[in-house]
Amino acid sequence: MDIIVLKPGATEEELKRIVKKLEHRGLKANISKGTERTIVGVIGDTSKITEEEENAIRLMPGVEDVMRILKPYKLASRDFKSEDTTIDVMGQTIGGKKIQVIAGPCAVENKTMLMGIAEKVKDAGATFIRGGAFKPRTSPYSFQGLGEEGLKYLADVREKTGLPVVTELMDPRDIEVILKYADIIQIGARNMQNFRLLLEVGACNKPILLKRGLSATIKEWLMAAEYIMSKGNQNVILCERGIRTFETATRNTLDLSAVPVLKQLTHLPVIVDPSHAVGKLAYVAPMAKAAVAAGADGLLIEVHTNPEEALSDGEQSLKPDEFKKLMKELKPIAAAVGREI
Amino acid sequence: MDIIVLKPGATEEELKRIVKKLEHRGLKANISKGTERTIVGVIGDTSKITEEEENAIRLMPGVEDVMRILKPYKLASRDFKSEDTTIDVMGQTIGGKKIQVIAGPCAVENKTMLMGIAEKVKDAGATFIRGGAFKPRTSPYSFQGLGEEGLKYLADVREKTGLPVVTELMDPRDIEVILKYADIIQIGARNMQNFRLLLEVGACNKPILLKRGLSATIKEWLMAAEYIMSKGNQNVILCERGIRTFETATRNTLDLSAVPVLKQLTHLPVIVDPSHAVGKLAYVAPMAKAAVAAGADGLLIEVHTNPEEALSDGEQSLKPDEFKKLMKELKPIAAAVGREI
Amino acid sequence: MDIIVLKPGATEEELKRIVKKLEHRGLKANISKGTERTIVGVIGDTSKITEEEENAIRLMPGVEDVMRILKPYKLASRDFKSEDTTIDVMGQTIGGKKIQVIAGPCAVENKTMLMGIAEKVKDAGATFIRGGAFKPRTSPYSFQGLGEEGLKYLADVREKTGLPVVTELMDPRDIEVILKYADIIQIGARNMQNFRLLLEVGACNKPILLKRGLSATIKEWLMAAEYIMSKGNQNVILCERGIRTFETATRNTLDLSAVPVLKQLTHLPVIVDPSHAVGKLAYVAPMAKAAVAAGADGLLIEVHTNPEEALSDGEQSLKPDEFKKLMKELKPIAAAVGREI
Amino acid sequence: MDIIVLKPGATEEELKRIVKKLEHRGLKANISKGTERTIVGVIGDTSKITEEEENAIRLMPGVEDVMRILKPYKLASRDFKSEDTTIDVMGQTIGGKKIQVIAGPCAVENKTMLMGIAEKVKDAGATFIRGGAFKPRTSPYSFQGLGEEGLKYLADVREKTGLPVVTELMDPRDIEVILKYADIIQIGARNMQNFRLLLEVGACNKPILLKRGLSATIKEWLMAAEYIMSKGNQNVILCERGIRTFETATRNTLDLSAVPVLKQLTHLPVIVDPSHAVGKLAYVAPMAKAAVAAGADGLLIEVHTNPEEALSDGEQSLKPDEFKKLMKELKPIAAAVGREI
């Protein structure tokens, strides 16, 4: 259902042209003449009206504005699918009663370090291992990741610990090598609107962890999920990781209200990454607790055995014993909101 | 004209209650049933529906959303008054062909300094003198202004130079003393939604220069103007002075597109303060030129004979000779957009 | 300790002038010449350097930038007072182990309604009653509050229920009447930088609940607290209520990471108002839970017996039974973070 | 030159460890003990300290903060190259006295349409033709571009009109086909931090038009330019196209102050795209004028013969006669700032 608002002085002629245009597209017009504005309600299946056609109507003489009532995404919408989507990965269910915890270092640096972290986070209750083999770094002079070698280390960790692997895809040319090693493919915040990458992962059969863009609205984020889903892959996990605001005390502003908003708008699971959002160690644990209390289906937490030596984002990494303490503290909060961790 | 959008599963019973509620208020309902949503167009004089009544409808069972077509401000709107408002102050017309330039120091510091600046800016073409006697400072430990003494210096300057005085009102208790000395009363960015202050100046007979709040939308800004106008004072001058964004290279982000947007929405004059927005001397002149090119009716520029010794905002103040150079450079730009300066 | 960074080509002469200026103020210079920049460390008690003097140095020839190491606020800083401030109001301690809950309608509308709400929220565990008698409304055509009559109703409620009263002061001229009835004086988000109002409440002996401005950084918010404290009133309670971002799915973005950030920077108690931040009923309870998990010392929640008829902000008000359910659900979360509610 | 600020209670032992760490890296420490903080100035060539090493220092015991004095980009900085970079493309110089105007439709739709627009914009004074063959669209259901066919039409236009071609690269896999047809390769706002794409175009020998990301700071934007330049391609043109703020009256907020800021920080040419920033036809011309007045080296303007039928962004497209009028109006403004158009 679209609504067309006419300008104050719109003529009968202009109104007729609009009605005719709608009828041409098999739609009907319902005209309401108010004292200050005339509005046209569009009756029929408007979901097939493209953005281009909507724009064309907006530019017709006499038109002040066009409003869309229906959401621009469909497959991702709870209107389309009312029950929660759950995604099974090697026996772990994302979006179910259990809150899943993805832990690990920001970047894979070497095999021993990764294995050491993996064993410790598993022991503390983590259910997935994460680590970047290809790193999106804002400086060309920073460590860019180990590439396929890093992916192999992740696969070794999976074999030894049984933890499924979450790792980021940055370039469509890497999809085959990523598919060989990853259990969940992460799309980073900076690539949330890298539409070619979205289409690529939409055509694969692995679950996608889609991070929110730094300045993406929730609607745009769901449109990015729709991109992936439109190609057939329905297993999308949304990950809130902070948005950009004027505040500088934290790296970004973690938008936890996105959790209940998404729970209303979509059936997809929602997880939270407090580490990247806050950027400082001391704020990670309180925000992880808050995320669970707000209803998140999972957490993504950076853990490093030696944050001072980390080649990426050490400032926000928990040490394994801090992570263990946090996991313990999260249990009663999860229970309080009817979940397990 | 309001539009009420019903939830997908809204019942006939719920629809009936809504229609009844509207009829109770002397309005009629125009119902459009689409394939995915039913919408109700409200016919009649909806301008009298208060925000409270709108909220009440939004909370009725079966209602998904309520949309307002009409703007929430009226007196400030170009729908209400189509021709440009011009404001005459001691022979200078704000909002006419001539671009008015308000210049002077951020704070009035002493009489000699103020007189020196005033004579130089007048000589360079400024048409108003500005200076703060009451200063809104973010630190309680900073210079807070000279109070009435500063106002007297401004009046002395007016007497000697003929330049009308623009100065800020911060506290409703100061209105009488301000009225005694000011020709235009400035409401600062931090007070844009100090509603009591707005009502106070709405009841006085001096023009009001209303600065945009640091995070105010254009709509909220016009609502603030409406507050003033609703009390009888129609002489409101809008002053864009930068909004808060994530960018830190400038103090604020000067939103020059607000100028053409306002020219479409309102009949009130629009001026631009580049000094406070950018916060750095080197950026003031380019942005002053851009403001004139964008269609501003005036400029507010900080000038100080000795910026290094300024007690407030020296970093963004032009020296008199820099101001003179800028005024000269603005002339052909003003001419290019059909204006004078 | 201030740091002065020189421009790449700064001369010895320029450096000398800077050193001399510092010595004039009783400070010493420690010069470090790097390969690309020279920096001057300022030694001595720089806390007495005013903003004005800092600006003057910034504008000296050869200076590229001046950096402040010390925070611009002092009394509010944890450096100044390391232990948590607790505030006692009629036997309730804010900032202690118990999480305090301030509940009530946005605006006081009539006595019966207010009493009904107060009894129900008290029964559910609320420890303070709130209600606005003077309302900051963005439209001049909206309900502006009952004034002193509303304050009397609040006092009646206190007498009957024992709940202390929290209510907003908008205008320095109302301070006497507010002091007669309020136990805690609220400064609203739009007045966070109404410096005259801050000085006024700084001179009174009632605790102040200071809401964060819509676009205020945490640093500016603490500077506003400093304003109040500089006048003698040390009992300031900070209240996070959402900041303005590009996201439109919620009214504002509740910045819960402000809670752990503030806990590090200041000794003052921190509470959270989820109702105003999210603006929609369905998101209030999840965000209240998240606030407690993040370490908030209290909550401010809107409750109305009949949200559909509320004269202000009905959309975000919980009904008493919803509030009761929430209070029950908050208990185990409070316990999980070592608190009571 | 880096500065290390110690915590109030840092011990001599902690200070020694820091000094030792610096000496290990061939750097020297200059210690300033203030009354409230000790700071360590790092002397030597700190430009080789990686982000990783900086992080490691930040996490050492006793360290409160680390500040970088030098900019994180080098090749793009005016410190590195003081004179303006000019880029020659088929006889047109970008960054010189002449303001270059890139005009054309958002998307290439068909050959006749494109040729018609090209002839008209050339006639009006445009010096480059633009058009997208691969379109980044927020909806997977929108027109995605003609691909190589569209590029061929652009090449045909160049052959016939002599206008060099500007077109967007979205996917590293398309680089060869783009290189075959484009004279300037555009990197869109959503790909500003698609680091793989940046490295790819950094290795090619065509000029790159790098749009600012929707929420990118100027510093991050220059870091993105540095990515390209670090691979050898020094011909980067920066294009301001609006940033995301809370304002909704325009699609984005055109940050024109970025023009003078960039002119100070970098030697690279800076152009402005008012069309995408404002999103509405009526605001394009005023903002184009403002951009020229602010000192932009060029403009990127959308022109379409039939905006109502445009398959992308019709709402913001000028018709050829509107463009012609604008070009004429820009002439005296360009002259006023010492430029030609």
Largest interface: A-D, 47 and 47 residues
CATH class of the largest domain in chain A: Alpha Beta
The rounded distance between the terminal residues' Cα atoms of chain A is 42 Å
Integer count of domains of chain A: 2
Order of SSEs of chain A, N→C? EHEEHEEEEHEHEHEHEHEHEHHEH
Structural class of chain A: alpha/beta
Give an overview in words.
4 copies of one chain form a homotetramer. With 341 residues, chain A is of the alpha/beta class. Chain A has 2 domains: 2-68, Alpha-Beta Plaits; 87-336, Aldolase class I (TIM Barrel), CATH 3.20.20. Chain A is 35% helix and 18% strand. Chain A is built from 11 helices and 14 strands. In chain A, strands 7-8-9-10-11-12-13-14 form an 8-stranded parallel beta barrel, surrounded by 7 helices. In chain A, strands 2-3-1-4 form a 4-stranded antiparallel β-sheet, covered by helices on one side. In chain A, strands 5-6 form a two-stranded antiparallel sheet. In chain A, a hairpin with a 2-residue loop joins strand 5 (87-89) and strand 6. In chain A, helix 3 (111-124) packs parallel to helix 11 (320-336). Chain A is elongated. In chain A, 57% of the residues are buried. Chains in contact: A-B, A-C, A-D, B-C, B-D, C-D. The A-C interface holds A 215, 217-219, 243, 245-250, 253-261, 264-265, 277-278, 282-283, 286-287, 289-295, 329, 332-333, 335-337 and C 215, 217-219, 243, 245-250, 253-261, 264-265, 277-278, 282-283, 286-287, 289-295, 329, 332-333, 335-337.
